[in-house]
Amino acid sequence: MYKLRDRIDPTRLDSYNLSQNPAPAAVAWLEEHPKYIDWHGLSRNPHAMHILKRHPDRIDWYHMSVNPAALDLLEQHPDKIDLYMLSRNPGVTPQPKKHGVHLEETTPEEIADWNQDQWNQDQSEQLSKHPDIFVYDYDAMRATKAPLHEELVRVLFHPDNLHMFDGWGVWLRLTPCPHLLL
Prior knowledge:
Layout: E1 2-4, H1 15-20, H2 24-32, H3 39-44, H4 49-54, H5 61-64, H6 71-76, H7 83-87, H8 108-112, H9 121-129, E2 134-136, H10 138-156
Antiparallel strand pairs: 1-2
């Protein structure tokens, strides 16, 4: 589970570049917020193949032709391949340069702090492509795992199972401690 950093407004992100963001967190966030998906950009994202396979009618085959993870899907639809873009696909022909988005040495906080008067398309693109604009949503994770935590505590610390802790050097209270309960 991921969420955007607190100071990043999703309406300031460029959907095309956000959809191309190679970070797994970006793809996961887009799955939870599909209104921000740009299908042209997502078609280029090698980490978004599972989404594209679920929505084949939304694929932009021009951009998909350059996606190195899409070779099997392109083989299934040879009539939709754009040969020019396929010639640029790093999965088809070896490329001398390293592939991937080159980001400047700018943190997402610095980008988000740029004055709104100075905001332009380049800054929006840079922020949208930055893999570090996402953070773990610990509150959502904690809420999701709470039932499992409760069940583990209930089973492991059941009085019938306390004999398993013999010899550990742990002294267990047989009365519940309120500060240890969820």
